[in-house]
């Protein structure tokens, strides 16, 4: 009789432990959900092929954005070398795209960007390089993606004295919402970005 009671107690303990473990696991999954920041506003730029490119082309996709310029000899080559790892991780997944937007559109024409992207083996249809009107780009960077710390008077925004240089990779979900910021010069941060993209794909 004593062994029977002991077996019942052990069974009850096992069931309770399993319920607690399940509940804890569920809570952990809830806690791991990426934050939702804000919506990316619509934009109209031009890709490296000279074609119009905006949010419509990214609809339903998970994408990573960055701001760079082709003549940059500092952090941009490091960032785009790291971005190659993002491309490699999702090379066969059409739901993940990369968008690189120049902050020097006067010099970074579609022709320049088309040549520049070859240095990073950018896949056609996967990694897009964009240019366009400087004022529109700077409004997008400062107010849409919020990657510029300094404020500029509206009349000077995107003017000759305005220059934005950011090391951020920005993760955007299928609904066009920003879900994370990452240091594009850090391999550890890029690995985290890749892991977070995988999490978004499971959402």
Question: Could you give a short description of this structure?
Answer:
With 203 residues, the protein is an alpha/beta fold. It has five helices and seven strands, in the order αβββαβαβαββα.
What does this structure look like?
By secondary structure, this protein is an alpha/beta fold. It is built from 5 helices and 7 strands. Helix 2 (about 75-90) packs parallel to helix 5. The termini are far apart. Residues about 1-5, about 10-20 and about 25-30 have low confidence and may be disordered.
Descriptive key words:
203 residues; seven-stranded mixed sheet; globular; disordered N terminus
User: Can you tell me the overall shape?
Assistant: globular
Q: How many DSSP H or I helices?
A: 5
N- to C-terminal distance: 50 Å
Structural class by SSE content: alpha/beta
> Which regions are unreliable across 5 or more consecutive residues at pLDDT < 50?
2-7, 9-21, 23-31
Q: What is the typical, i.e. mean, pLDDT? A: 85
Question: What share of residues are in beta strands?
Answer: 15-25%
Question: What percent of the residues sit in helical stretches (DSSP H or I)?
Answer: 25-40%
Number of strands: 7
